Amino acid sequence: MDHSLPEAALSIIDWGRLKSGDADEGARLLAACDDQGFFYLNLSSEPVFLQDHKSVLRFMDEYFHQGLPEKMKDDRQSDTHGYEPVGTSTGAMKTLPDYYESLKASRDELHGDGMDLPSAIRNRQDLLLRFCDIMNQVVIIILQELERQLGLGDERVSFQDFHCEDAESLTTLSMFRYPQQETLNLGVGHNKHTDIGTLTFLLCEQWGLQVLSKEQAGWRFVAPREGHAVINVGDTLRFLSGNRFRSAVHRVIPTQRLQHEDRYSIAYFLRAANNTQFTDSAGRQVSAKQWHDEKFDVFRETHEEQEKLPILTGGMERLGSIVV
Predict the structure, then answer these.
(1) How many domains does the chain fold into?
(2) CATH number at residue 225
(3) How far apart are CA 66 and CA 308, in angstroms?
(4) Residue 52, SS3 per DSSP
(5) What is the pTM of this model?
(6) Cα 214 from Cα 276, distance rounded (Å)
(7) What are the pLDDT digits (tens) for 35-55?
(8) 3-class SS of residue 300
(9) Can you give the residue ranges of the Fe2OG dioxygenase domain (predicted)?
(10) DSSP annotation string for 114-163
C-alpha cells in the first residue's frame, strides 16, 4: 500500500456477518451510507467468488488486448451493452477526453438467450452469469438490511419494491480498462460523477479511484484492499431515501501524471426498474430510465456544459461547502 497518497477513511463492513443478520454490522452499514456513501466490503467468506474475479480479469486482459478493429465489431452505440472505445466522454481534466475503454452487458441480456451479446461475452456467459448473480445477491441483501435499519417494509414502500427481478431495468455489468499511456494528449482517467443507479459493487486491485471526502475534505484515494469490494450509494438510492443517503462524487485519475500500467476495474451497477419515479437533484419528477439516459448524455458534453446542470455530480457538489 502506498502511504504517500492521501487516503479516504472508509468503513469496512464484513459480508459474512452482514449476511448472517448481525445487528451491529447492519448499524455500521447504515452509518456508512449516511456518512461517506462509500465503504469496503470484506469478501473473505466468498472464496469461490474471489476466484471467479481472477478468471474475469484474465478474460478482460485477453479481450482488451485485441486490435481496435476487432473490438469495434462489438460497438453497439449503447450505454448498457457492448464495447466503448477510449475518448468517448470528457475526462478527469479540463479540455481532455476520458482514457478508458469498456465492455458491458446488462443483467437482462445475460439472463436472456445471449444472441445479442458480444461473442466474447457469450463464450464466457456461464462464468459472467455466476459472477453477476453473487454481486446481485450482495447488493440486494444490502438493500434489505438498510430497509430493516430504517424500519421500512410491511405497509410502507420498500427499496426492494423498485428492484423486482421481472421488471425491466438497466442493471449492468461493466468491465473497464484504463490503458497504459505515454502522453496526456489522448485523455485522462474518468470524469467526476455520482453513480446513476442504486448501489455499485466495484472490484479493482489498482490505485486510481478517488472520492470527494466529506470528513477529510477534498479528493482522497480509495486504497485497493485484497479480498474486498468497494460499495457505493448511487443517485437513485439517495433520491429514494429522501436524500438521506450520500451519493458521493468520485473519479478515476492516475496516481502519477500518466497511467503507467493497464488498470482494470469491474463494476456491477444495480439500477431500479425503468419506470421507477423519483424527485431528482433539480426537483423534477423523472423515471429511473430518464435519469440514466440524461446523465449519460451529459457525460459526453463539454466540461463547460456539465457545470451548468446538477446532473453529472447529482447536485452533490452544491451541498454544504463542498466544491469540485
Answers:
(1) 1
(2) 2.60.120.330
(3) 38
(4) helix
(5) 0.94
(6) 29
(7) 999 999 999 999 999 999 999
(8) coil
(9) 166-272
(10) -TTS-HHHHHTHHHHHHHHHHHHHHHHHHHHHHHHHHT--TTS--GGGG-
